[in-house]
Amino acid sequence: MLRRGEGPVRLEEDRLVVGRDTGDGPPASVGSLKGLLVGVLPQVELTEPIITVDRACGFSKHLLHMVGAEARSPAMLVHLYGAILAQATNLGPVAMARASGLSYEQLAHATAWYLREETLTAATDEVVNYHHRLPAARLWGDGTSSSSDGQRFPVPVKAANAGALPRYFGFGKGISVLTGVTDHYATFGTRVIPTRVREGLFALDEIFALRDRDSELSITEHTTDTAGFTDLLFGAHDLVGLAFSPRIRDLADQRLWHLDDTIVPADVRGLIRNKIDSGRIAEHWDDLLRLGASIHEGTVLPSLVLTKLQAYPRRNALARALQEYGRLVKTLFILRYLQQPDFRRRVGSQLNKGESLQGLRDKVHFARHGEIRQRQLADQVAHAGCLTLVVNCIAAFNAELLGRAVDELRLAGFEVSDDDVAHVGPTMTEHLNVHGRYHFDLSGAPKALRPLAVRSQSTAP
């Protein structure tokens, strides 16, 4: 590839120079499609996606009382919705009672007795499975690829797990909420972690937790940004049978490794100059396989064992062997990444999906300047779980709505390509009102699409 001068990669005196890919932005037709969709989609209140999606998949059946299941009246269901929204919007039960007319006592009761990690996780899995089965979801992916990224939230109260925020987030303390996102915009995992840790160390926890839950997802490839990769993680993902495909900043500065310099062509030997200690890998190969099997079968929590190995890599023989193996896997990944433009675009696209969902989370979580004021970890986890549940409801609601809107546009004579719809995604919020008063109408029918405000393509001169 270097000899042929293909792509944005070139060699300058044994130094790799990686430029930007050209023409990777969305086509102009995507902007036109968004304009048409905004004109067609109905204006909806924030309560409607929750009610509509629950009516379609029944996620609320998993929100059980702490002492067991009980008969649920429509009034109790409304207060459950209100309690979920109170956490997701960060309003809290007092402000939600004022904005909705619901009983504060009932909202507080639902929050304390129904909304906890295990019930919210099961409810979220139900919504994700529903999203996974929607026809429109196939335009964005098949649910086999995922990405993870942490979102920082300030914590202005005294909380044992709150740590100093990175400088570019401002001063003060906070927490990081790590979310796992599929290629069709479903958030399948939510975890509260310290702000200063490597986020990639915790990504495997959520992926393998899916196997113990009623999830229809089957993740085979995982993506992170630069803050989420280490040599150790490349080795760990490979040992458990997952492809690890991070987007690495300053890719040209990464060290490449070989097993034997005699097999490296002379004109790139200066680029691939570091030698793998294959003897160390061979010596501990059985231990590496045992580690991979333990993670794969759920015997150990991935983040726990990887954090320990990451902390003392030079003192631990297994950590050093895993690091050597990871360097080999990382080198193969980088070479593939440099040579395949479609692969680079897929990695970037998956991370962009996660960022667009984080933008949706920011829009929903608008009150109190986005600060999380719970002191206990369990309450913070429930708070983050409610936000994930609401965001998943909006994404699934939008996916179903976009499918209907695209069909309507095509019937009107507009040429709408699946590629353009794939660029749009179900994170549009122009039609969504998150502020004001909240009404919970359980008897209301789903809103119809608005009539086209422009002439159809077939009648245009």
Features:
461 residues, six-stranded mixed sheet, two-stranded antiparallel sheet, 46% helix, globular, disordered C terminus
Describe this structure in words.
It is a single chain. This protein has 461 residues and is of the alpha/beta class. Helices cover 46% and strands 11% of the residues. It contains 15 helices and 12 strands. It has helices at residues 28-40, 47-57, 74-88, 92-100, 104-114, 117-133, 200-209, 231-239, 278-283, 285-296, 302-311, 317-339, 341-364, 377-411, 418-424, and strands spanning 9-12, 15-18, 44-45, 145-154, 163-164, 173-182, 187-193, 221-223, 243-244, 257-258, 274-275, 432-433. Strands 4, 5, 6, 7, 8 and 9 form a 6-stranded mixed sheet that branches. A two-stranded antiparallel sheet has the order 1-2. Helix 1 (28-40) crosses helix 15 (418-424), helix 2 crosses helix 14 and helix 6 packs parallel to helix 14. The longest helix is centred in the last third of the chain and has 35 residues, at 377-411. It is globular, with a radius of gyration of 24 Å. 41% of the residues are buried. The model is unreliable at 454-461 (pLDDT under 50).
